[in-house]
Amino acid sequence: MKIVFVRHGEPDKTYVDEKGFIGMGRDMAPLTELGIAQAKEASRSPLLQGCQIIVASPYTRALYTAAILSKNANLDILVEIDLHEFLPDKTFQVKGEEENSNLHKEFIKCRGEYPQGETKKWETISEIIKRTKPVMDKYYDLGYEKIVVVAHGGVIRRYAGIDVIAYGEVLEVEYNKEFQCFGWV
């Protein structure tokens, strides 16, 4: 099965910061004008030709991107909760961009896995793979030949093996159930 990954467009966290949203409430941020343009550009990618469905993360920035792709590629959208972004705090209590950034820096310093004998607040790369791979397997088992997955950099890295993935970037990966996800890249 071919998976065409699309990273969501650039999010605008101004409103969620102003309102003081915490945890997953911060993931209700819409796209910026640039993010909308990035999604529109992604919807013109020739890699989308032949895709049968769009599978999207439940976060607003991904759903907004998927909606633009859906409109322009005439594809239905299915939402998969387990395609959400890396969790900087598994207790869902991140209170702002500064705390989020500090937790992400710790994740990077540890290269995505807890040091031996330690537990942190953030989700590990192994946990990201464990929750997302069954989603990909599901569509493989359903017999899809080519799907679009609108997700986040932290998810897409596990399948593309690329460190830097731009907002609105479109990447194609050949997937089967024996696929080996990437750890730290």
UniProtKB/TrEMBL annotation:
GO terms for cellular component: cytoplasm. Gene3D superfamilies: Phosphoglycerate mutase-like. It holds the Pfam family His_Phos_1. PANTHER family: BROAD-SPECIFICITY PHOSPHATASE YOR283W-RELATED, HISTIDINE PHOSPHATASE FAMILY PROTEIN-RELATED. GO terms for molecular function: phosphatase activity. InterPro entries: His_Pase_superF_clade-1 (IPR013078), His_PPase_superfam (IPR029033), PGM_Phosphatase (IPR050275). SMART domains: PGAM. This is Phosphoglycerate mutase.
